[in-house]
Structures are given as structure tokens and as C-alpha cells.
UniProtKB/TrEMBL annotation, chains A, B:
Annotated ranges, domain HTH crp-type: 147-215
Native organism: Roseibium marinum
Superkingdom of the organism of origin: Bacteria
Matching PROSITE patterns: CNMP_BINDING_1, CNMP_BINDING_3, HTH_CRP_2
Lineage of producing organism: Bacteria, Pseudomonadati, Pseudomonadota, Alphaproteobacteria, Hyphomicrobiales
Name of the molecule in the record: CRP/FNR family transcriptional activator FtrB
Keyword Cell division in record: no
Length: 232, 232
DNA sequence: CTGAGGGCTTGATAAACATCAAGAGGACGA
DNA sequence: TCGTCCTCTTGATGTTTATCAAGCCCTCAG
């Protein structure tokens, strides 16, 4: 494992407060590995053997039932995933696959569990991390239950706008098929949703979106910190 | 606080492993209080002042946005709620109201946070509890993303059937308006969904449901442990 | 260059779901 | 007892979303 990777991981809120010793033990047992695009990392229903940390690239969490499929979330650097299943030593509820070429850190889940039993600071950091994971899903759930497809798209665009600097221009981070799945709609309907937003000053050019009437878009989207703000 | 209440709370997975001292401190600071039906306990957006434990009655977690409303979950005895907000000292993402007359235990959230910093066993129990909360919402989310209204109803009925003894008969625990909201559908559509299930041997008589073709119902519902099983 | 394939869009159609309106039946208080 | 309110159901209608089919455009390998 490269020193720079190690420092980045060490800097994560989940790991930064744990003891030197405990962190070293964890990292000693871990592997850094590169994966090609579109590779299945986890199948739902299987045990959680590793805690994953995305160092480079992005990972899609998804789920299947009765022939249908749904994207549950995207993981980008530098973030962990399937923490809850690892801690409970339980079966994974979601599948995971790489979107692009990825560099991942794999920490054996038994070591993670051992670490939080040994290091109190780590177990406190886990509590905050899990509480955040929980609240993120709750927000996702609210987003889905309370909003139509067009509204979800409008708010997602405003979110990207904020993240990307707020200068009236946005580049979609994923292709539209994936974006559609994230927004719980079909690619066809995403296309139509963009058309619906045109009167609100949303101009689409491939992956580039420009906004000419942010006020109007916000009036439609009605962003809400209890749904859209990451840190709340 | 009555001794029997105290023992029940002490028996909860969240509290049973913590030290006598820490539990006593927590309980000393707490109040038991009775609330009438349909009383608002928490408004989303407000700080989480207490960790709540439902001792009697049931509580609805719900949320609002732009004039719309959605039920997020039901809490029945003996269970805690808004644990994540309490631990993070954050704003509540959901509102809560009593459905019927309720007896609740209110533990000041500052005391909960102090307790997990002092008692290691408690912080480990919190980790397991939070991981479970997280996985429960993930399952809810999958249920909503992957299934139609009729499918959600069919699976909910099968779930009640299992919980209530599996003898081909079920009594709905809530009125149909609330059940509809839990299933993310309107009361009108719940009524129609019951009609859709009649050919699958589902007979409705007020709150009493009887099943005459469980195999058939299961073929339609396709229950899945990664969505429907509570303990997975 | 050429053809194949994928991403994206559009139109037509169908299914799922919501809304509006009306009415049956039961609970409850005056 | 009567009227009122509430829950639940049903029908008619409209909206939202999905599905199916077709076509455009771009990329890329041969």
C-alpha cells in the first residue's frame, strides 16, 4: 500500500481518531487491489467478507428482485461501503460493481470487528459513521416517497450545481442511463424529464447542463435541507 | 418509573449489556410520560432533545414536503426511536406522532451521548442497533424501488401472517388509511389492491383477512429475505 | 470507408397510480 | 332517534411512469 493512499485512508473520519496501533493492525491485514470496469464486487445475499474503501474510481450499489434492478447509491473516493453488514457479520443487502477502473482497499471484516472491540475511539467513530449512513438512506427514502421524477431530477441538478461551484453550469458525473437509475426512473423518462425542465432554463448538451433561470428551477425543485443537504 | 417498565427497558438489546451504574444514570435522568392519541411528539427539523422508548401504544414516524406527506415507519413497544439524531446531536429528519394513547420513556439526549462515551459495552450495543436501523431502511427502500403497490401489500400480508402465527388468518394492526400510507399508496388504491388479491385467495372482512391460497399468494408476492426478513 | 453496436431521444401505447366525486355503513353524541 | 362524522369502497377521470419500437448520432473495429 502506497504511503499516500495510507494517509488518505487514515484521514477519513472513520479512521482518524483510532490509535496508531489499531490502525496499523487493520492496514496490515488489508489489501489494495485494482479492478476493471463493470466488475461485480459483491452479490447481495453473500456474507460481507471485507469492508471496502474506494480509493479511485466509482462503485455502484444496486439490488435485484424478480427480474427488476435498482441503483441504491454511488460510492466515490474516498469512502467506505458495506460497513453495517461488516459490523453485524451479516449478509449483504446490496450488490456492488465497479463503474470504471477502480482502486479499492479491502479490509477483512473480522479485523474491523476486532478493532472496534479493542479501540474505543474507533467504536465512537463507527457510531457517527453509521448514524450518517442511516440518515443518508432516510433522506433518499424521503426523496423517493415525496417527489416525482422531475422533482428528483431538478433537485439532483441543483445539488450538482452547488457541489461543482455554482456558476450556472454542471457536468453530469455519470452517463444518463446510470443517472436515470439513480433517480429511480427509466432512461426514456429521464430524457423527457430534461425536456420538462427546459422551460425552467435547463439546457442540455450531452453531459453539460447550463442553467439560465436558477430561481425558476428552485421554485420548481423546492430543495430542502432535510432531504438534500448531505451534512445535516 | 415502575419497576416492570424499568426491567423491560433494561432487557432491550440496546441497554442490556451496559453497566448497572451507567443504566441507572440514564434512567435517573429520564421521564416516563403518557401521551394522548394523535399528539405530535417531534417535528422534523427540530433538534433531537430526547431518545424515545415506546413502552405502550404505537408511534408513527412521518415526513412532509411541499404539502405532501409520507409515513416512514411505525414504532411499537418496546423500541427506541430517533437514536441516530440523538447520537449525532442533529436535527430530526422525521416527525413523530402518537397513534393511540402512549406511554413513553424520554431520555435526555445529552445523557445518552455521555453514556456511550463512558460505557464501552453501551457503545458496542449502539453500533449493532444502528447497523440494524440502517439495514431496515435499506430494506424499506428496496421494497419501494423494486415492487409495485400490490406486491408490497401481498408481502406485508404474508409478513403479518408469519408474525401472527401463520394459521391462515390475520388481523390488520392498523386502520387501512395508515396501512395505505405505510405501503406508499392512497387508501383508494389499497382498497383496489385488496380486490386485485382476491383471486389469490385473500378475503377481506374489515380488519380481518383470511388466506385460502397461500401458495398462490406467495407466487405473486415472491417474498425475499433480503427485503422482508426483519432479522437478516 | 463501412457496418455494428451502444447511448440517447422521440413517439405511441399501456400499465400503475392519484385525484375527484359519490355513497354505503358504522360509531357516537346531542 | 337522528344527524354528523369518519372510514372504507367504488367509479370516472387524469397524471405519471413504464414499455415497445424506431431512428439518430457517435464510436470503434475491421
Amino acid at each position: 500500500m502506497r504511503t499516500t493512499d495510507l494517509e488518505v485512508v487514515r484521514g477519513l473520519r472513520l479512521f482518524c481518531s483510532m490509535s496508531e496501533q489499531a490502525f496499523d493492525d487493520l492496514v496490515q491485514a488489508a489489501y489494495v487491489q485494482n479492478f476493471p470496469a463493470q466488475l461485480d464486487l459483491i452479490h447481495e445475499g453473500e456474507p460481507a467478507d471485507f469492508l471496502y474503501v474506494v480509493l479511485e474510481g466509482s462503485v455502484e450499489l444496486y439490488t435485484n428482485w424478480n427480474g427488476r434492478s435498482a441503483t441504491m447509491g454511488m460510492v466515490s473516493p474516498v469512502t467506505t461501503f458495506i460497513l453495517a453488514a461488516v459490523l453485524k457479520d451479516a449478509i449483504c443487502l446490496m450488490s456492488a460493481r465497479t463503474c470504471e477502473r477502480c482502486k479499492l482497499l479491502l479490509i477483512p471484516s473480522a479485523n474491523v470487528r476486532a478493532a472496534f472491540h479493542r479501540d474505543e475511539a474507533f467504536s465512537h467513530a463507527i457510531i457517527i459513521e453509521l448514524a450518517d449512513c442511516y440518515r443518508t438512506v432516510v433522506k433518499e427514502h424521503k426523496n423517493l416517497k415525496l417527489r416525482s421524477g422531475v422533482e428528483r431530477l431538478a433537485n439532483k441538478l441543483l445539488h450538482y450545481h452547488t457541489v461543482q461551484g455554482g456558476n450556472g453550469r454542471v457536468v453530469l458525473p455519470y452517463d444518463k442511463k446510470l443517472l436515470a437509475s439513480m433517480l429511480a426512473m427509466t432512461p426514456e423518462n429521464l430524457s423527457r424529464a430534461f425536456n420538462t425542465l427546459r422551460p425552467y432554463g435547463v439546457e442540455v448538451n450531452g453531459a453539460e447542463i447550463t442553467f439560465t433561470d436558477l430561481k425558476g428551477l428552485e421554485t420548481l425543485a423546492k430543495p430542502n435541507r432535510l432531504i438534500d443537504d448531505r451534512q445535516v
